[in-house]
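Quick entry between incubations.
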Amino acid sequence: MLIGIDVGGTTTDAVLIGNGEVYSTAKVATEPQNLLISLLTALDAVSGEIPPERIKRVVFSTTVITNLIAEGKTDHVALLLIPGPGLNPASYNFPDSFFLKGAMDYRGREIQALDEAEVRENVSRIRDLGFLRAAVVSKFGQRNPDHEFRVAEILEEMHPECKVELGHRVSGKLNFPRRVASTMFASATKEKYRAFVAEIKKALAERDIKAPVYILKADGGTLPLEKSTEFPVETIFSGPAASTIGALALTPEGQTSVVVDIGGTTTDLALILSGKPLMASRGAKLDAFLTQVRAFAVRSIAVGGDSAVRVAEAGEGKRTITVGPDRAGPAYCMGGPEPTPTDALRVLGLIEIGDPGRAKEAVASIASRIAKTESKDEGKDEGKDAGKDEDRLGADIEAEYDYDTRAETETACRIVDIATEMIASAVREMFLEWEQEPAYRIWEVLQKKKERPENVVGVGGGARGLIAGVAEKLNARPLIPEHAEVGNAIGAAVARPTLTLNLRIDTEQKVYSVAEEGEILSLNTTDISNFNKMRSEDAEALAAKLLRERAERFGISEYAGEAEITHSEVFNVVKGWLTAGRLFDVNMQIPAGLIPEWKRREKA
Amino acid sequence: MKFGFGKIKDALKGVAEKEEREKEDEEEKREREISEAREVKEKMSESEQGPGTIEELNMEAKEPVKLNEPGSGPEPLAPADRTKAEKTGLIFFPAFDWAISPTHPEREERLLYTRDQIFEEGLMDLPQIAEYTPRLAGYKDIARVHFCVPDIKAQATTPHLIAAGSCLVLADALMVGEVKNAFALVRPPGHHAMTVAHGNRGFCNINNEAILVEYLRRKYGIRRIAIVDTDVHHGDGTQEIFYNDPDVLFISFHQDGRTLYPGSGFMNELGGPKALARTINIPLPPGTPDEGILYVLDSLVLPILRDFKPELVLNSAGQDNHYTDPLANMRFSAQGYARLNEKLAPDMAVLEGGYAIQSALPYVNTGIILAMAGLDYSCVREPDYTPGMFVQASRDRKVLDEIVATQLENWKNRDFLVEETVKGLGDFYHRKKQIFYDTDMIQEFQDETIKMCPDCQGYVTIDSHAHRSINDTRVFGVSVPIYACKNCQAEAREEYKKRIRDPVYEHVYLQDKKADEYRAYDMRTKKETVY
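Done. Structure below.
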């Protein structure tokens, strides 16, 4: 039996899966102040009736890091930054920054030495200011971490109680400001996350659950709980990732879909292109900072089932209906204070929840307010095309027919139309943005093509009423799979591990490094005999070997066979007119996907 | 002007060595090019449609070509107001899968370290930068500028189409007001490519800036454009293309042509009879540092630009004036380049040369991007650079003073010069030209005529004879300027009709920019291609 639990902002969803079948599901309210309680309540709800030894795997996705950052409850971190030449570091907006002299170039050659006296001066200031955590990040530190190591040594010597995080260990990708932010968050959340993990482990032990436990990452992959304490920031945004993997699990293989997760206040969108979830090209944005955390390309728009529906002045005495961006409370038909899209859906009979009388009342109040200004116009709209020509809408409604059913239906249609159009246009923008991704090679420019969704997959609570409208606008098939309301928990339950490996080889300097591991090693330690004759195939073979070893260390070696090369390039290093060496870059990944247990079910 | 002999000797040595090495590479290069061309052809035929629309007509009828009344082309769009735009548009297209040959300076990793630097700086994340994605230029965009021999496909391969297309993407972004300025950080380069393109010269096949200018004129009705060529090599291709065009001001500063490829760009090259002093050459002594270049910019280039009042200023932005460039002998720094772009404030910059791929390009490009985006570039510095390490020699300063004085005088007297010169000419102005294609080893001889029309700048014809080792090619091209008068247009089209009956030519071209109509006639197959 597999358990998946997604701790979301409003609800915590859980699912128990056995033999590819959903056995039971649970939905409990999330208590933002005690995520652990929410998580365990949901866990108990689905697993209560089965003996603990039958549980084979437990996967959580949690907002714990997101919440810590959003609520400003992270620890203070001193940033020791070694920016070198380039953008003026004064333009960075990182807090608590201490800038140091010293520089590496793009090939990891030292171009300016550290000023040790300056380092010591700054470390003593950090100590005097009471910082207990420090992040050391140098520009091109991933190409040569010597400066980061030396600063860490001085910190260790002068301020031993300070916990140090090094930039090149957090991310090996190019982008210094993003690496600074990622390292800062890693350092700021590590302790609290460790405590959270310890509590989970304790709670599971109490329940006698001995199955391996994983945590879901923003890239839709699972990470063993124990291992996750090294990479706390990677667990942000695992909610949208869970929904996306859920949609992947619940839709036919290999298709292009847009995943629409309609919540109370917001709608999250993600894309699955020919069966592969689309990753954000550079990394997730966290708080005010861009990071290098690998995440799905998700977009959140401020429209949901409980968005406040209001009438606004559109100028020239005209009025228009607005949906969102805020939520005043639950839908009016559910006892809330203001009209919402849920009320409109109720009036149109597209959903069955809530009090129909109150829904009617909510929509009528909008209808009467919009009608007051428009009754002068002689429009003949049928209501269906409402959103497209707002000025003329509801024109034939007259004030005295405030409670006229037709007026209500038309207004409800219009509210639904506005909400679905907001979602559909965001989807169109996402596809456009994906097409506009920069290309740096000829073949990348040549292979650019348009893709449009075949399916609009609705997951989450608010999906039911709005999906059909969104799909119609996108000329796609609406799809609300069975168990869509707990699609996120299913996604967590059936997600497989992901792993990346970025190998760089410099045969002129006779070194190689794996960005994720942060060590620069001599090529002599590999079984490559003649570096000058090295070809791409040799580099790729080395990458594959290193990936297998890395997967083993992560306890996920059974998935190493799923690894694929995402990018492989080789450049000559020419000195004068001779080739002095080669630079190889090989990027590999075990991509997001489903565990075989779930796939088996599809075939059956 | 006088030079120290030592400098000339050094510089000449550099050129000679370069040529020798190129010879060595030649064979390998040829092979590679052939296989590359094959690859690209395959790719192109695979893609559903080639770039642009082409109409192929079989012309075996008695009357070989029937020219209808020329259309006038679509109405240009009005450029949007850019005063509120805040971003700098950027296309980074390093063409990591294209090289002239594996160790040629124009090879795959030319922009590799530049990528590393600008990505590590996180420049693409800055709110002041908008990154755009490249596209392929259409064949028609190329035909607006070039007579490609034997055809466009042969000269403009996929990477060339992408580099040119990138400029056009940014031109659109600029014209619709999305960005305040733009930088096309693309390769292959183009400023040595002339109107007739028989092959590659100076690493260039097609001229990105010229394609950009004709696109801006056609699509957005821009008339007055200034191109400032800041590459260390004379922008002889761009100069040649706009030599007779009084609406395009071409200013090039470069290392003196007596010491560096292509060996032209002297002060007496001032433009055709009706466009005199719309070509301004500034041959700089080898070894000129930031100080000298910025002096010329302040005292000559900027005053002329202020006077000319162009609608757009383009920077043909080579980076080989750098003190570490292996192909030239100047002493410009990253700070100097950033300052230059800040002062010049071009609406658009297009990368040209620059071959110090490790010691200069990463820093120079970062500097230019920051300067164009209005950001602080004071911390951009080459590892071995210290301010004040290069001082302007006082002897060279005198040379610069003379250049500034002479060219300001020419500029001031431009209308008088035109008047006096045209007075002494008949109906046509004839010019003989000899052009050498260093990369492809082609000698080209041209007879150019320009109609001395009282109503417009006059149409141009080029009779071109190219010698390869044993094969000779002779082609004829007629070009009608976009703002030509009706008579010139009609006369030019007659000329085209006449020449396609003359079997001495292998190819005959009509470039009617007024009608936005482009024709290429193949004498052997009797086929006409219309773009």
